[in-house]
Design brief:
Elements (H helix, E strand, L loop, with lengths): L1 H14 L3 H11 L9 H13 L3 H6 L10 E3 L10 E4 L18 H7 L2 H17 L4 E2 L23 H16 L4 E7 L21 E3 L2 H8 L1 H9 L3 E4 L3 E2 L2 E2 L4 H11 L5 E4 L8 H6 L17 H5 L5 H17 L20 H10 L2 E5 L13 E5 L39 H12 L2 E5 L5 H8 L8 E8 L16 H11 L3 E7 L14 E6 L7 H9 L29 E3 L8 H6 L17 E10 L7 H4 L20 E11 L5 E10 L10 E10 L4 E9 L4 E4 L4 E4 L3 E7 L7 E8 L1
Parallel strand pairs: 2-3, 3-4, 4-6, 5-7, 5-16, 6-9, 11-12, 11-13, 13-14, 14-15
Antiparallel strand pairs: 1-2, 7-8, 10-15, 17-18, 18-21, 19-20, 19-24, 22-23, 24-25
Helix pairs in contact: 1-2, 2-6, 3-13, 5-14, 6-7, 6-14, 7-9, 14-18, 15-18
Amino acid sequence: MMSKYFVLFLVISAYYESTETALIKRQLHEKINPASRTWDEAIRLAKDFASQMTLEERCNMTAGVGGHCVGYVLPVPRLNFNGLCFQDSPSGVGDGVQFSTAFAAGIQIAATWDRDLMYERAAAIGQEFRGKGVHFALGPMMNIDRNALHGRNWEGFGADPYLSGENSFYYVRGIQDQGVVATAKHYICNEQESNRTYRPKTGPSQGYSANLDDKTMHEIYLWPFMDSVAAGTGSVMCSYNQVNGTQACQNDKTLNGLLKDELAFQGNVMSDWGATKVSLESALGGLDINMPGHDNLMGYSLLQFIQNGSLSEARVTDMIVRIMAPYFLVGQDQNYPSLDLNRDAISDHYVINQAVGRAGMVLLKNVNNALPFNRNVDKYYSIFGSAASRYSDGIDPHGVLGLDGALYQGGGSGYVRPTYFIDPLTSLLEYAREFHLQIQYVIDQYDYSAINNALNNRGFFGGKCLVFINAWSSEGRDRQNLSAYHDGDKLVQKVASLCSSTIVIVNSVSQLNLEPWIEHPNVTGVLWSGLPGTEYGSALVDILFGDYNPGGKLVFTLAKNDSDYGTNISDTYNSNYTEGVFLDYRHFDKNNIVPRFYFGFGLSYTTFSFSKLIISKAGHENYSIGQTFHRQRRLSAYANQHLLKFYDPAYSITFTITNAGGRDGSEVAQLYLSFPEEAAQPPKILRGFERVYISSGRSKQITLQLTQRDISYWNVINQKWTIASGKYTVSISTSANNADIKLQDTFNI
């Protein structure tokens, strides 16, 4: 099976117009793990393994033990099993180990809207986990950006379940193709940090309760987990919070009912670290591994429940089969590397890291083509802001509110300690050396005497001003507001008041309020740099000077007023998802709220036109080889066969995109679907996309497929995905703004 996959991938790469992307593909591809099995094969091996274990050994394996890894499962030497190592994070090998690439964050890869890069980034991450001998990578993180202030939004893929699901799917594939088990997290409805753990008057600690209805659960929050399970993820991590009043790691409805029964998930459920609150109820509720295991809630403690008849031995055996099946699934029993967390496994992954970093940058404003700079004409540059430079006390960010440097990732368990970091100022100075540019800079943004002196430096009159602002967040706490750090808004206003060509670089974990300065006439350009990883500086310079044409798109809406989002962090122990399925752009559409920048928005240095929209039932069109690859979901041996029927194509949407401008570039074609009234859906929902790279003056025909699931809604009465009867409207757009719809047509069912 895998040899066919290898050949297909090489053929497809030859058809890609982006030579850089194709080159990265070939480099990663040769290392695809050849040892993966089907789930049926893996489960047979796991059952055989479990049958050779004593009852005490089986109980012991259900809880972690101390070790070199953040989580560790005991070895069974007499069965030639050396144990399992679990390690953070979704953006690289974390927990402070050496020689790891700090990859561009989840929020950045999502902003590329590029499935090839999604896979390639994940494959590179998987290679580093494998190279260090780690068995389980604790990612992807796919919690939805429900609250703009959520401290962990940067780890995930944005505010839309479809986009998050596609990212999750290709992350799982990329990781597990390297022989590493992926862990989909945090299951489920873990959309804030506030009150994730609190102490009631009696009993164990608890987490806030996310309270939501069945339709919202299926169509928003379960959606990306379904994609992860379909991709074949070996593990799912349950979260700290409660769901409708029951802790997530002992929640029979979500773990057994939704995940293991409805989605037919065959892997294991592990707890987030310390998220297990009780013993027997967790084992019965669907938890298979308690991490880190020091609390004696599972492991050997389960033996007493078997002896008194409250827990069956069959359930414990099922837990072991679920723990071991992923190990056999991806071939970790066959010449897997020994464990050495500080082994150098970074290879040349800076290449893909830089590609993702710049592909995820979003051009928000560009008055009169202020960007890109012309290095032969634009010779004078004034740079302002601590976010342009390095941290003052080393390579690691410290504290919560005192960050004083450029950001490449956010904080918490998702953070990866890098071997190096290239900040924007360093890259700009190197560029100035090569192309003879004149640069001055002030990185202490509270030193307004120095800022004034720089702005009044006659030698730089008429030059370009770059203002760098940022906003940080971390696991463990939510953001306090949506303002830039260190009075960044004040800095922009000051520079713009004296510089007629001010470019603002926004280095933010997620949403930010840009209203204090966005309409200032001297702010002629705004580039959302996001969290681009350790190649930040070089990626940014490529865009500023036109060596790379920006094509990233927002993965959330940027509102004019913070209250416009319609959701917020709950200060109580209950977070009520009363908005239902009307989240982010769906909420803005429903309530006719005009944002500052729409979900899916992003400018380019060139222009595109759309034409020739054709809607046909699947199977009646000719696919281009480049477009069919991403729908070949059966190519993986370890895909979840039960869910594949939901991904059968129903309709094909074909159209042509033309690069009508003077530069090579890319556009993200976004397919929004409007449903019949029966489905009770928002005005439109994202149901397809493709980032298309096209040379100047060239055209390309694109085919997007609507699957059975894409045209379905969750029927709460019949408890199944249902296709409504009536008229469906297909809109091909470049953002969620109705004004950006380029083509539109309907079909009836």
